[in-house]
Amino acid sequence: MTGPLLRIEGLTKRFHSGGGLFSRERAMIAVRDVSLEIARGEVLGVVGESGCGKSTLARLILRLIEATNGRIVFDGTELTALPASALRAMRKRMAMVFQDPYSSLDPRFTLARVLAEPFRVQSRAMPPDAVAAMLAAVGLPETLATSYPHQLSGGQRQRVGIARALALRPDFVVLDEPTASLDVSIQAQIIALLADLRDKMGLTYLFISHDLGLVRYFCDRIVVMYLGSVVEVLPDTKAAPRHPYTDALMRSGFAPDPARRREIAPLGGEIPSPFALPAGCAFTTRCAFASDRCRSERPVLSQDPAHPVACFHPL
Amino acid sequence: MSAWPAPMRALRWPVGGIAGAWLILIVAAALFAPVLSPYAYDAQALKEAYGSASAAHWLGTDEFGRDLLTRLMYGARTSLSVSATAISLSVACGMVLGAAAAWFGGRFDRAVTVVVDLTWSFPEILIALILVAIIGPGTTGTMIAIAVAYLAQFTRLTRAQIMTLKGETFVEAARSLGAGNTYILLRHLLPNAFAPVLVAAMLATGDAIILEATLGFFGLGAQPPVPSWGGMMSAGSALVFKAPWIIIFPGLAVAATVLAINLYGDALIAELDIRSKLRGAG
Amino acid sequence: MSPLLELSRVSVAIGKVALLDRISLSVEPGRILGLVGESGSGKSLTAMAAIGLLPLIGGRVTEGEVRFAGRDIAAMSEAERRALRGRRIGFVTQNPMTALDPVQRIGGQVDIVSRMHLRLTKTAARARTLDLLTQLRIPDAAAVVDAYPHQLSGGMKQRIVIAMALAGEPELIIADEPTTALDVTVQAQIIQILGALVRDRGLALLLITHDMGVIAQICDRVAVLYCGRLAEEGPVGPIFAAPAHPYTAALIDCIPQEGTARGSLRGIPGAVPSALAFSTGCRFHPRCRRATGLCQDSAPPLLPRDAGSVACHHAGAAP
């Protein structure tokens, strides 16, 4: 039981689009050379805006899509080298909760069938009363077992999504913006539920979100991504940002307190197209500190284990 | 949403209900023709030939004095069974082909698409005529001809459905649990693709009845003395002035049945709320 | 100053279902009123009632009246109401991706507003469009007017939608969740632009959002809606400092902020019921920590309190 539960090294994903009869093929790097470790029991946050590659990263880690380059080692086993059958068995130990609770449940399945699916695809016998127990664990009444997803509210559906992910008692769960399409009142419920389940079941989470405030509340360590690259790893939730982008993210959140209104200094410039990234640091087009060096050379994540940052002019 | 399945709920619509009632009537007439019909379909009574509607023959008689109502009921048997069987065959093959194309993609998909697009660009009647010419006239030939004529439609619809469903999160969720290809195809993709295909099949059955009648009219369908609506119209066409009922009643039967199928189909589409999905098939 | 938009005891129904129950609000020039609540609380419906668009969704005002600049909207002809929308009232919708016509160039879409409402010529309208885009800090406005929507980012599109709302020189802007579909850094930008417009031009802004952070950042007053009823209304300072209604307090407490202890966020139990299943008495009582038998039996009236009003039997009581 030593070493990290998950270690990824140099993970890269390149997507190609077009290339059909009517369009030129273009390539974009959705995830560029990402390396990180997740310790057992940790909640690692990945934060970034749309197009930063956080969802792609999640899918790469679970091998729902194949990486172009890099290694993923889960509890000593290299996932990237695993044949399909062994990978399928490994999926018992890793699970995912998806962003959209409306489309993540098959509309033709009753909840009982949704919750039986993990056992079925892993050819494991389902204990009697398992459905009722799973529903109870996520705070849903047993009577919902015969309901269809469309009869549930968004928050209830997401609870079902969580119950399904935890059905086979995994060690590691990827949470891909599990509250992004819910009301704040329901978001707080779901986050509280996830925290309780983590304590009860000893889970390790990779929590993906665009909401830095939420990530700082829920996670132990925070990875900040911008256009496919990791720009900073905040070692704890109190750490002051060192990358100008992280700083901008923090300044963009509004506290629910009119006494703490801030002068908004919005980021200027535009987010570059992922198909045409600048040669140097991807953030140069919006960064107040950008120098000629930033524009021509790409900064790499510093090897400072205490607080890695990829910036030539850290704050 | 109520506990009734959509095909039952569609009957609650006024138009859907009337159309459904006609379809039930015509199917019952076809099924129970031997019990219900007052005569045998090939019982000739030359003395009574060209008789118009009477107490003994409600819809009159044809040129051989055979009872038109009886022949209409037996004709329904031929028309409906040939069309329904042909469409079922077409749906079964089309779903397998379309699902396989969408699932495997690549070269196989491109080949299927090209063939489908090619057949799609010919009128169904032309395809059917060519096939009957090859297989030979008769019910079996007609059935196969109709099945092939509509194959492109179901292949294309199923392929489009599966392509859309493949991107749904619940498919990704199943994969994240360790589900294999076969499981996902059989448990998630095909069941969800089925409803729109079912409605398309329903509507195509209407077209198939017309196609079957057309082939029958040309003498390529069921061979005499077995009655079919197309064959009856063909016989009546020469006698249009002498005994117009011989062509009018089977014509009305075709029209009313096809109309009923279309109206009921519309009600079913509204109940299943799949209009947008059907449109996706182009 | 007299209010530009005023709703007094407005009730709204769609078919037989009553959705809004005696909502009273007012927005003054140069002020921002925030309208907040969970989905299903009736925020967007209130906006639609405010501009007489209810018939579009089969709804109608069953009680009360909506006045714009002192005139009852219901008493106007449809032509007068149409002239109001776009000309004196501008809209910013939630989803900038669908608010723009995908096959029309940006310039044309903005031009048409001032050509229609201000009767400007083609060239004058274009000049005005370029001016507006520059004011909204859209870089390279001259190139953007020739672009199609799909060529622009989400934040850029939302600024175009704001430009369209401003093109008719309106006095009131109604913005329905204008930043919900946007990234946080872009949200900050848009909020800053909206705030500056109100400050610099003396516009009135009705800002609909589910985000208490946004409300705290730029609104002068806030109206909290729950299940089609006003829970609390008043100036933001006192309301955030000491919310009198437990629902307001709960909404604020849902947002993690600097110093929120881990595990302290629990959310609001339960969920917003459908309009067919509103509770008797106070509609919030099934989810409320302070609820008593009284709350179950009788609906609390909206009573004045400090500079605002609140509808709670236990207003301001310690939780």
From TrEMBL, chain A:
SMART domains: AAA (SM00382). It comes from Pseudaminobacter soli (ex Zhang et al. 2022). It is an enzyme of class 7 (translocase). Its EC number is 7.4.2.10. Residues 6-252 form the ABC transporter domain. Part of the ABC transporter complex GsiABCD involved in glutathione import. Responsible for energy coupling to the transport system. Keywords: ATP-binding, Cell inner membrane, Cell membrane, Hydrolase, Membrane, Nucleotide-binding, Repeat, Translocase, Transport. One of its GO terms (biological process) is peptide transport. It is a peripheral membrane protein. It catalyses: glutathione(out) + ATP + H2O = glutathione(in) + ADP + phosphate + H(+). One of its GO terms (cellular component) is plasma membrane. It is found in: Cell inner membrane. This is Glutathione import ATP-binding protein GsiA. The complex is composed of two ATP-binding proteins (GsiA), two transmembrane proteins (GsiC and GsiD) and a solute-binding protein (GsiB). GO terms for molecular function: ATP binding; ATP hydrolysis activity.
TrEMBL record, chain B:
This is ABC transporter permease. The keyword Transmembrane helix applies. One of its GO terms (cellular component) is plasma membrane. CDD domains: TM_PBP2. The chain crosses the membrane at residues 20-41, 80-105, 125-152, 197-223, 243-265. Pfam families: BPD_transp_1, OppC_N. Keywords: Cell membrane, Membrane, Transmembrane, Transmembrane helix, Transport. GO terms for biological process: transmembrane transport. Belongs to the binding-protein-dependent transport system permease family. Residues 76-265 form the ABC transmembrane type-1 domain. InterPro entries: BP-dependent_transpt_permease (IPR050366), MetI-like (IPR000515), MetI-like_sf (IPR035906), OppC_N (IPR025966). It is a multi-pass membrane protein. It is found in: Cell membrane. SUPFAM superfamilies: MetI-like. It comes from Pseudaminobacter soli (ex Zhang et al. 2022). Gene3D superfamilies: MetI-like.
From TrEMBL, chain C:
The keyword Membrane applies. SUPFAM superfamilies: P-loop containing nucleoside triphosphate hydrolases. Keywords: ATP-binding, Cell membrane, Membrane, Nucleotide-binding, Transport. One of its GO terms (molecular function) is ATP binding. It is found in: Cell inner membrane. Residues 5-252 form the ABC transporter domain. GO terms for biological process: peptide transport; transmembrane transport. One of its GO terms (cellular component) is plasma membrane. Transmembrane segments: none annotated. InterPro entries: AAA+_ATPase, ABC_Ni/Peptide_Import, ABC_transporter-like_ATP-bd, ABC_transporter-like_CS, Oligopep_ABC_C, P-loop_NTPase. It comes from the Bacteria. It is a peripheral membrane protein. The keyword Acyltransferase does not apply. It holds the Pfam family oligo_HPY. Belongs to the ABC transporter superfamily. NCBIfam families: oligo_HPY (TIGR01727). This is ABC transporter ATP-binding protein. It comes from Pseudaminobacter soli.
